[in-house]
Amino acid sequence: MQIAAPDDKRTALLRTLGALLGPTRVAPGCLDARLYSDLVRRKTLLLVEDWATREQFERNLDLAKLNAIVAAIELSNEAPVVRVDSVEREEGVDTLALHRTTGPGAR
Hints:
single chain, alpha+beta, 18% strand
């Protein structure tokens, strides 16, 4: 979820969203949960959760978590951007090396 944090609500938004991280990280199936702040667009916060399965993600969306998310949205003066992505395949740094040797401008 990407959300705009007005200066006067930034601390409250960080606390509200930050409070979700601990319980989310220990939930069954959670691979990672992080809250980012954009360095260029300072008002932009990004909450990212990585789940082993869609079912585990959905199981974690209980009423308390949904209420906290709604409370955070209400602190913002803009509509949030919410995305749920499904990843079919993951690749690592080896992919970068492959493109470096075969991509445009390779030597």
